[in-house]
Design brief:
Chain lengths: 389, 127
């Protein structure tokens, strides 16, 4: 069974807050849920499927379904970190195609900024008996140095340069200047990135994403319902996921699970990377973008540095406009999870609702792709291809 | 350097590793069925699923696959992936070395370290 054409994204909402000291986590989830429902022209009582990730407070979906007073007959709380929500669109489309639900709500929210969580801090342990724990945590592994080791290896193996990494940030900042909600709206140069302090070699401060509160939600539904609503039609053409890890010590940090999830999504969509007009790609760090763009097939493995250089990711200038909201590097990164905002900006681009300064002309095919967990250890990759009908 | 306070969970599955390390011996797990050595140590071989895995003393020699120096830490420290002579690549720290001399491909050797909290950890130094 293929989900190509079986489901549509009919509602999308990004919370405007970037710091929410006076809101509860459940409240943020509800605000994005109700925002996405209003965008779709639906009410909460239309929802019969609910999807959430590890950011949801309580046991899986239970507390939030109660808090929002939903009546669902299908739920999925698969947690693969920041890519969870892209994966959830895939799972929602499958559930819809199988008749398990009609209107699926997916939410993300978090307030790490208000809670003063720093990503330089040691990784949070999901489970005290997590088997990898004693083999990594005592060595001071953090999100920062785990990604930094991927960058170091990529530079060693392929000759990728710090300036090429910097171009990813430069492109994101060009987009963020047009987003009034973005945390960092100043356009930066390659020199600005190179002059920012080294955090974990070779990554500098401006190679890293922001820490923000906020959240987002999307609504997925079946074709008949989508056509009855008043919003532009955004069809799911293909979706896939993959989990990559350290493979019993057979370690290769130069590629991500996107190599597999991307190929499978393109196969389902019957499309190739050359067909994609806009890509939302997870940008926890500049290196994350380079490795994923290679893995998705937008350029060959090892050529990502050259591909992103010279403004090639800037809308209106480059060949592959990316993260036109400013992405995690400049806009927001709610709960340290960037997958949801990747979907939302792709939907805006396909609807023609992105900021006019960054709107891609004739944007009929877009991709949203994410990595959850750590590129440098284990992660879940999720790829989603959407089409404006 | 350890960021933990003697909280390393030593399950029976891997207790022999930590006991040997206390005695200054660095063990890895190999598989009698397929012959491959894996990391981190498991009861079942992650390559062929066989339960016929056995502890073996490793040479303690390897090369740096990748690394990063955490500059914002005080003092800075080096995390690394080291590819062991026996095959698998493991996460570790490079210690007792000039951090600025660390490069991918450089040879390293085991440097077992006792942490202030009492934990003993398998770290490496430039050879």
């Amino acid at each position: 069974m293929s989900i190509n054409g079986q489901a549509y994204v009919v509602g999308a909402y990004e919370h405007p807050t970037r710091k929410a000291p006076d809101k509860s986590l459940a409240q943020l989830h509800a605000e994005v849920a109700f925002g996405a429902l209003a965008d779709a022209g639906l009410s909460k009582d239309d929802v019969d499927g609910y999807f959430c990730g590890g950011d949801a407070p309580g046991t899986g979906p239970l507390s939030l379904v109660e808090y929002m007073n939903l009546k669902v007959r299908h739920a999925d709380s698969t947690n693969v970190g920041g890519s969870s929500y892209i994966l959830h669109v895939n799972h929602a489309a499958q559930a819809i195609a199988a008749g398990k639900c009609n209107i699926a709500l997916i939410t993300l929210a978090g307030r790490p900024r208000s809670e003063s969580q720093q990503k330089g801090a040691p990784q949070r342990v999901d489970n005290p008996v997590q088997p990898d724990f004693p083999w990594e945590q005592p060595f001071g592994m953090t999100t920062l140095n785990a990604y930094a080791m991927c960058a170091m290896r990529h530079m060693h193996q392929f000759g990728t340069t710090p300036e090429q990494l910097a171009w990813v940030k430069v492109a994101a900042s060009h987009h963020a200047q047009h987003n009034p909600n973005a945390m960092l709206r100043d356009v930066v140069t390659v020199e600005d990135v190179a002059n920012s302090p080294v955090i974990a070699d070779p990554l500098r401060r401006l190679d890293c994403c922001v820490i923000s509160d906020g959240g987002g939600a999307v609504i997925v539904t079946r074709p008949e319902i989508a056509r009855s609503l008043k919003r532009p039609l955004v069809k799911v053409r293909g979706a896939a996921e993959a989990i990559k890890h350290l493979a019993g010590g057979d370690v290769d940090l130069t590629y991500s699970g996107g190599a597999r999830s991307g190929a499978l999504a393109f196969e389902e969509a019957k499309l190739t990377p050359a067909d994609i007009k806009y890509v939302s790609v997870y940008d926890s760090f500049t290196i994350t973008v380079i490795i994923q763009l290679e893995d998705l097939g937008f350029c060959k493995k090892g050529e990502g540095g050259r591909f992103v250089a010279d403004g090639n990711l800037i809308s209106g200038i480059g060949r592959l406009p990316f993260n036109t909201d400013g992405g995690g590097l400049c806009n927001n990164h709610p709960n340290h999870r960037g997958g949801m905002t990747k979907i939302i900006e792709a939907v805006r681009q396909l609807r023609g609702e992105a900021h006019p300064a960054v709107q891609v002309a004739n944007c009929d095919l877009a991709m949203a792709h994410g990595t959850g967990g750590l590129l440098g250890t284990r992660h879940g990759s999720a790829s989603l291809i959407l089409e404006r009908e | 350097m350890s960021i933990l306070s003697n909280t390393l969970p030593h399950h029976p599955e891997v207790q022999p590793f930590w006991s040997a390390l206390e005695e200054g011996r660095f063990l890895v797990k190999g598989c009698r069925s397929c012959g491959r050595v894996h990391w981190y140590p498991r009861a079942h071989c992650p390559f062929c699923t066989s339960a016929e895995t056995e502890w073996q003393e490793a040479s303690g020699r390897g090369t740096i696959y990748s690394y990063s120096i955490m500059r914002q830490a005080k003092p800075p420290y080096a995390i690394a992936y080291v590819t062991l002579e026996e095959g698998p690549t493991m996460m570790t720290n490079i210690v007792d070395s000039d951090l600025e001399a660390i490069r991918i491909g450089k040879a390293v050797e085991i440097a077992i370290q006792r942490q202030p909290d009492g934990d003993v950890l398998p770290m490496f130094k430039l050879a």
